[in-house]
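Issue: ligand-bound run for beta-D-glucopyranose - logging full I/O for the record.

Environment: standard queue, default settings, no custom constraints.

Inputs:
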Amino acid sequence: MLKVMATQVEIEALYPHKPLKGQTAIVTGANSGIGEGVARHVAAAGANVAVNYVVGPEAANAVCEDINANGGTAIAVQADVSSEAAVQTMFADVISKFGTVDICIPNAGLQRDAAFSQMSLEQWEFVLKVNLTGQFLCAREAVKEFLRRGPRPEVSSSLGKIVHMSSVHETIPWGGHVNYASSKGGILQLMKSLAQEVAPHQIRVNSIGPGAIKTPINRSAWETPEAEQKLLTLIPYNRVGVVDDIGKVAVFLASDQSDYITGQTIFVDGGMTLYPGFATGG
Ligand code: BGC
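Outputs:
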């Protein structure tokens, strides 16, 4: 595992008041990268966490063991988020274990990069299926469960919270990654249209738009000093992000601290969406 993350003990210390106590969260793609960081923070904030993974239970189990050893509650749940049946089974399992789901963080995502003229239909469809359809399927099961279960004012003012994991590329075009950028552009309207539809039910739907965060998905962009220097030209704040930057905002958006926020993307990007080239050009 990549060690660019605080330890579980350090993360626990951030949330002495346990703002998510008594709630249950599903985090998809939580066996590595941003999803792992989000699962650790949400657990440290007091929620029971379902750590979803698609292949290789070892990493997901290790995340759960670490959370459970530090006072949290986590279980690993296998599901391919692009499969309707698998997502439905995952929700049923988590609901039977913890009683309900209060927080859904559809995070699982991947890249299959190619120059546009070389991009296969398979590369296009695979990325859209996991990144966009996967988030649709999870959000839909979450909304169904929130409506079925009804209010729980003892744990939250809202009926339920969905925090989509988008990207700066829901707004920044990304040549060579047209499938990925299209999936994130799709998440923007999935999130906003869904937020508009379910707000009257007191369900909040928001997105996090991470910039460059040190995870396996973009390792080549930061792992050598030369690559990191080049990447920093895109980041006015002058550091590459870490998963804890995202975990903290996920807890905020899942908690009543953000009770009046819905239909928004919070970019967590060190200013990448400020188009730094224009600081001296244009
Ligand atoms: C991508 C990363 C990239 C970052 C900034 C993310 O959504 O997954 O590979 O480094 O955006 O461009």
